Automatic annotation (TrEMBL):
Top-level taxonomic group: Bacteria
UniProt keyword terms in alphabetical order: Plasmid
Pfam families: Phage_TTP_17 (PF25681)
Full protein name: Phage tail protein
Organism, as annotated: Nocardia farcinica
Length: 198
């Protein structure tokens, strides 16, 4: 059976909106792919062409019989992460996500000096937040919602004359319980194709 090309999704960044947003923990979650996000969801700035990496890991134990054949694979753990590489290295919202809001201060420009950003690098744990990513293909939209996400690693940051300063951040996406269901990330996809009236 040939591939149904209408089901193939090649993501790109929205032209008039951001790609990744952050909101305080507990903010009301989106319920579809296209409804505008609440004001609490703040655009985190541009990301690199590495895109959005969603890693899903299942830890299983292989149980073998006396003959050495695997007869069961009970699962002991499941985890999920999102990784993005921020490219706006002096964007206040990017810096707040990477270093923590309380570690970033901004002083507006004056007649005597430019705007000043002060960033403290320290060991304080970074807070949990709601993270939302959005990509598009044509009129279709894919939105991923991580209700409890926390930055756990930041890759080494290089300052060289041949590249932009980037912050590659991995977010741990913790399990969220919603009524009778639980998830680490909930994904909404709207293909953008409206039903036609006969």
């Amino acid at each position: 059976m040939p591939t149904d090309t209408s089901k193939v999704y090649v993501p790109s960044a929205p032209k008039v909106k951001g790609v990744i947003y952050r909101a305080p923990l507990g903010t009301a979650l989106p319920t579809d792919a296209v409804t505008a996000l609440a004001a609490a969801y703040v655009d985190q700035g541009g990301i690199s062409d590495a895109g959005i990496v969603n890693a899903m890991a299942r830890e299983v134990q292989k149980i073998k019989d006396f003959g050495g054949k695997t007869i069961a694979t009970p699962q002991s753990d499941y985890s999920e992460t999102l990784k993005v590489e921020f490219v706006e290295a002096i964007n206040l919202e990017t810096l707040k996500t990477v270093f923590g809001t309380s570690n970033v201060t901004f002083t507006p420009a004056t007649a005597n000096k430019g705007a000043l950003i002060t960033v403290d690098h320290n060991s304080a744990p970074l807070p949990e937040s709601v993270i939302v990513t959005e990509t598009v293909q044509g009129t279709g939209v894919r939105r991923q919602v991580a209700p409890i996400a926390k930055p756990i690693t930041v890759d080494d940051v290089s300052q060289v004359s041949t590249d932009a300063v980037k912050y590659a951040v991995t977010f741990e996406c913790f399990e969220y319980v919603d009524g009778d269901t639980a998830f680490h990330i909930r994904e909404f996809i709207d293909d953008g194709v409206f039903a036609t009236t006969p």
